[in-house]
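[job 4471] stage=fold_predict status=RUNNING
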Amino acid sequence: MKVVCFGEALVDMLSNRVSGVSAADGPEQFTKFAGGAPANAAVAVAKLGGDAHFAGMLGEDAFGHFLNNALVEEGVKTDYVRFTSEAKTALAFVSLDDCGERSFEFYRPPAADLLFRADHFDSLLFNGPGILHICSNSLTEEAIADTTATAIVQAQKAGWLVSFDVNLRHNLWPAGEANRERVNQVVAEADIVKLSIEELEYLAADENAETGGFIARQLRKRPQLVLVTDGDQPVQWATRSTWGGVRPPAVRAVDTTAGGDGFIGGFLYQMAAAGVTPDSLAQWLDSGAHERALEFACACGAHAVSHRGAFVALPTQESLSVFLKKTQ
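[job 4471] inference complete, writing structure tokens
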């Protein structure tokens, strides 16, 4: 089953400096890595052996072609990538603390990914069965949010599942914080929703509601599965009938940049391999197959945070097998 990840691909400029390293140890240096949450998710699916596609706009510049080539090298199909000379490819300067946690400084907007419009979607994109995966960075401005809404409608008309990784980056929003109403609208329209505990608390706050109540309300709408991550703590999951948790492997985090993307990519890979559709999702969840898929996804995320970078940190089936043997 085809997995199409729509949104931003950007260049992560990863610092060589971590907390506690002073200027006396030499100048701070940044290394170029391919990244961007939807692009990372596409690479995660592709490296595991899935049929992964990336849809988005890149700048007609050195960074844009670097990203497109990096996607292709990892096995992602880029037929749905568009290029523009009207804006540059986005950059993100990433610094790490001594626990591998990140802080971002984005050079976006303006950026090429924000210029993707509904008429840029390939007419064949939603042919055949598939899964559409999106993130909230394609909601930060009204025009790109409208494009994302169009993608959701087209995917659902084609009988596709829609996966939404909230993945909030507040400093990318014009107001300095995410528009809760806009993000929550997409939460309510997706079949699968992934969010961190901090994102859950932020999105629930506007309703003065307990987070459990917020999840229950979403499950009365279109979503059938909500996933809540909390660093190295168990991933909590909730369906319309039950809930539970899956503990990820215990590892030392080196760089958490692609951890969540590796996790959701691993989960999408498992769903695509099982041929899950909106009509069969409830049965798949009732069978408990999602718990096995989540165990696999947790392993993929743990593998990613054990390595520096984004694309390069995501596992293949072989590297994941070696990794899991070392963690046992």
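[job 4471] summary: The mean pLDDT is 93.
[job 4471] exit 0
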